[in-house]
Every structure is written in C-alpha cells, then in structure tokens.
Amino acid sequence: MRNPLTNTELNTRLGTTDTKIDTVDDKLDQMVRLKYVSLSLSAATGTDDIAVATDGDIYIEDVSIYSLTNASGLTSVSIQTDDANPFVIMTAVEGGVANLTDETNIKLANAQKSFYLVSGKKIQYTIDGTGDWSAYILIKYRSISGGTLESAK
Question: Which of 2, 5, 123, 141 has its CA 20 to 30 A from that of 48?
C-alpha cells in the first residue's frame, strides 16, 4: 500500500501553498475489494439481509446485479441499507417483475452509486409479493479502518 502524501507533496501536486489541506487519510484502504453474493429468493413479502459491514466501516463504490432467472410470482424486489434513512441501491420500480428476467444485467438509475456503510449496518432486500428469483450481486468496496463486508447468510 502506498504511503499517504505529505502536505508538501499534496500542495505541490495541486499547485497550491494552502496549508489548510489535510494529509491524505491513511485509514482508507487503497485496495479495491469485491464481495460476491448469490441471492436465491423463495419467500413471501418481507425484508432480509444480504451483507453486513464488520470490523470497521466500508466505502461502497458500486453494486452490480445480474438476474439469473425470471421472477415468478413476485411484484418487485428492492435493495437498500438498513440505515434510519436508507440508501436505496435498487428501487422497487427497477426491481419490478418485468425487469427481473433471466440472464439480464439490471440497470440501476441511481446517479450516486457510492455510499458509506457503518460497521454493523446491513444491505438488505425487500420482497413485495410471494415467489422466486435468483441473482448474483457484486459489491465493489474499500475498507475503512479494517472494515470488511460479509455475507449475511
């Protein structure tokens, strides 16, 4: 892992002498990590966990969702964090049964792909309706202060 820049190095690269620029925070792990989750739903309306941040906070850069099967019997699936004000990764509209078709990359409209997940917080899915659906979820993230993303199941 590369050492963080000093104030002098950062000022030189930015072409400034502003002494208010802080040093680069060495708590953010520079290594990109990928968490792969295989999701196989066969349930009724409700919410369940996909993954949880452990041992520290994490910064999620992107989430990709690949639908393996056609959703049958479901109205929709949404994916979000369990924060008091959840960050919505996939809305119920994006996860509507018409969009959950086999062998399809689901296009997510959220312009802000990245978000912060505090240790102990989760990424969850919510099902509306009763039925089946399978997907792969790939989460690209960086560790903050030793945080990791673990599958909830």
Answer: 141
